[in-house]
Amino acid sequence: MSEVEENKYDLDELLSGDEMLTLPEVADRLGIVVSRVHDLLHDRKMIAWRNKDGIRLVPELFFNAKDKVSKYVTGTITVLTDAGYSDEEIFAHLFTADDTLPGRPIDALHGHLAREVIRRAQASAF
């Protein structure tokens, strides 16, 4: 992927209003060591965004009320990955407002519209 394609989304702006956690903060929240967080990233249970300073960050909204990675977030990441979305495209999909939900898919994943968000992600694969 060219540098232009990698940077076609302004994730700095898109994610600026959301709380972001460093990988050590994610480890603390989950009660695991940082190397296990790397395993979760590798296994696509969550994804991280690298900011302009090179720091990998995970949105706080990836977690549920029990301080676990939301199964709906993981499911949506899996479906979008299988559809060929890059991490940048997944972040853009999750954090861009969608008037038909209403709101952003990431917010809907924490409510009664979670299954609808996943259904739409599956439909986008075709």
UniProtKB/TrEMBL annotation:
GO terms for molecular function: DNA binding. Residues 14-63 form the DNA-binding protein Rv2175c wHTH domain. Residues 72-125 form the Rv2175c C-terminal domain. This is Transcriptional regulator. It comes from Corynebacterium phocae.
